[in-house]
Amino acid sequence: MTEESRFLIACADQMPEIIAIVGWIDLRSDQIDLLLDQAADPRLVGYRHVVEGEAGDFLTETAFRRGIRTLMARDLSYDILINRHQLPSLPDFLDAVGPGRLVLDHGAKPDIRGGGWEPWAADLLAAARFPYLHCKLSGLVTEADAYVWQAAQIEPYLAHLLTAFGPERLMWGSDWPVCLRAASYEAVFRLVSDFVDRHCPQARTAIFGANAMRFYRKAP
Q: Which residue range or ranges hold the Amidohydrolase-related domain (predicted)?
């Protein structure tokens, strides 16, 4: 088990309100099955790799895709952390590794600060056509101007995510503590809460908990 996953499990041991953990593992390892066996814990529901920090077209790597398929075969989830420049490669990746429980973190980080829209918007729609891809309403404030952003700047991106995925495939995420670089936890929550109340109030319970509980296999 990796140091990160051990740390997260130790946190869960001390805080019973932590019911699910997304850890890290070397998904390119040719010993991936052994590593997963060694890391097995009912609270460890899936994994994430920081693909946005990798050089080249990482999503096309054979060993990486093999690792993701191994997760899918074990009914584990995978959080996709990419940026908008890597988004065009996502449909081919999804086709190669799915179906399974896959969720896009931070909406692939659109250029909110610069007011960028295309090709992010079209690339997102192409990825959202895969019905097994979900998306987190998270990490958007850090793509805007820290602490001076306005909700009106971010809401068009929230609206596009809602159009692309529908409320049934969206889940709120705080991105805490990273969000603190651009906003308080309360401001991050209020941003999405106010948006949901105005645009899809009937989905509030789903977006703020039920969808994530179902996705991570923690629903009662």
A: 5-217
